[in-house]
Amino acid sequence: MIEIWKDIEGYENEYQVSNFGNVRSLPRYRKNRYSEVLKKGCLLKKRIDKIGYEYVYLAKSGKAKFCLVHRLVAEAFLVKCGNENEVNHKDENKTNNHVDNLEWCTRDYNMNYGTRPNAYSKPVVRYTLTGEYIDEFESANDAERKTGVHHGNIAACCNGRYKTAGGYKWRHKSC
Question: Is the CA virtual torsion 156, 106, 83, 68 positive or negative?
């Protein structure tokens, strides 16, 4: 497959994005105090945000804007239909921004896609502080509804960040 480049909307003749998920600046003249200087174009370094998505900064008129790479690719290469405002990674790899791996979708579709729903509904078990089994729940949210202990605190116990929540020990159920 050949790498195809398209201008980024709002940054025409300044930046381009490719169907492979690369972003580059184009050669352009920049004014300094005395004259115009040719600034060479180059591939921009992609960084990864705290939840795993690649991003770049695009500058215009002295102001830098944070831009997610997968959204730049989708906006340039994919046709958006109706109320589809989110971009889904089909293989669930947040750094694979190839156009063939992306699709416009609704929020509901994106949240329920692939293995993500299972990540939020792991069974949890409640124990006394001395380690005696009490009962189990379908998920941390289910446990919150039935016990009143916040699901975030239950999840923090299950993941080892807290020792207890609501006066109990909590663990993910072993298979």
Answer: positive
